[in-house]
Amino acid sequence: MKKMNHRKILSLCMCVVYCSLLVSCGSSSAKNTNQINGNESVTKVFENEKNADETDTNENNNSQEEKKDDVSASGDIFAMDTYMTVLAYGSHADEAVKEALKEIERLDGMLSATDKDSEIYELNIHHGGHLSDDVSDLIERSKEVYESTGGKFNIAIYPIVEIWGFASGNYRVPNQDEIDALQEDIDFSKIEFEKNSKSLVYGSEKMKIDLGGIAKGYTSARIMDIFRNLGVTSGIVNLGGNVQVLGMKPDGSEWKVAIQNPVEEESYIGVVKVHDKAVITSGGYERYFEENGVRYHHIIDPDTGFPANTGLISVSIICADGTLADCLSTSLFIMGKDGAIEYWKMHQGEFDMILYTEDEELFITEGIADSFISESKITVISE
Ligand code: AMP
Ligand code: MG
To answer: What does DSSP assign to residue 308?
Structure first.
């Protein structure tokens, strides 16, 4: 049996780097971006010496405000099992990036299913309990998507994720009896969620939840809120290849987000130009192991208990709501091409998508037809 986590880390790095390159291209201040790691303090860096001098000698004349679009700050952190980068522009950029990094650490500590100090771990041990505002919101959103996807998005899938070894890294192929024995324990409808009292009661002692399919999208959405509340109007967050952007780039152009090629690690299948959107991708290539020449990945079809095997190798969702984008990238990957297209037609206007198949065919929805650039042949899906 061959563990493949190193590939995931490499591919995520590539994605982060590539995205950073794209973000930097054509941005006058990106080369002066401050790097913030963890809680390190930052100083603003202006585009050239003249600006820096102005700041030194004119502390009371608002020169920083006048130059606000020239100011940027960025930070990076390893959290939620991946590399994350945050970049903000404007006079509040440094504060926004610091707050964003703090928020990532807070949510990482709260939402991990494996960290013994997390709220999710506690809930799983005690078969339910009282929920924080964040976890209550996440359960509510998960439930909505569970219902709208006919159960394909199912945070109660965790007992199955565990027997495949995706939680511990001790990968193995379970037998059908083991999977069948867990059917009742992965039935999300048996978990009682009381929104008003923010309480959760599991339907059986073996039930466990896992927010791995929604947490990164929720985190990027929260960072956009932090940016907005601090007056930042231009920024981007890249959580291991899952990207969300605020506004336009400071030069007034759209952000360009590269979609990684799941087959060739160092290339990409296309670039989508966006503003005020999340671009979130799910793919079997992100985490998998191989046994007897068969590849088993981490996105489980709740109807079979096996990794989804529907001919798609990557699904990207483009949507203003990062939380929804994350849920849908996981769900539509499980549905396969036809199911994903049917779902999109029933939810017109809510999101756009990029589907990449095992046969290396590329399908995009009409909403991004003018903003997706690729060297490959593209089929545009319309109503
Ligand atoms: P993503 O990378 O967003 O597609 O999420 C994949 C992660 O979501 C996996 O690593 C599991 O933790 C979890 N997961 C796997 N299958 C499902 C499912 N059917 N519904 C919800 N979450 C899932
Ligand atoms: Mg997801």
So the answer is: -
Distance CA 237, CA 94 (A): 14
**d(C-alpha 270, C-alpha 2), whole Å:** 30
pLDDT at 62 over 80: no
Q: Residue 162: CB within 6 Å of ligand 1? A: no
DSSP for residue 253: P
Residue 381 token pair: 């899906």
213 lines ligand 1 (CB under 6 A): yes
- Which of 166, 210, 297 maximizes ligand 1 atoms within 8 Å of its Cβ, making it the mutation to test the pocket? 210
Res 239 pLDDT > 50: yes
User: Is residue 302 lining ligand 1, measured as CB closer than 6 Å?
Assistant: yes
- The CA distance from 69 to 44, in Å, is 12
Q: Which range has the top average pLDDT, 51-65, 67-81, 128-142? A: 128-142
Which atom of ligand 1 is least distant from the CA of 167? 12
Residue 69: per-residue pLDDT: 60
Can you name the CATH fold of 2-108+214-381?
T-fold (3.10.520)
Spans of all domains in the chain: 2-108+214-381
* Dihedral sign computed on CA atoms, order 141, 144, 148, 149: positive
What is the CB neighbour count within 10 angstroms for residue 291? Answer: 12
319/110 Cα distance (integer angstroms)? 25
Greatest extent of the chain over all pairs of C-alpha atoms, in Å: 75
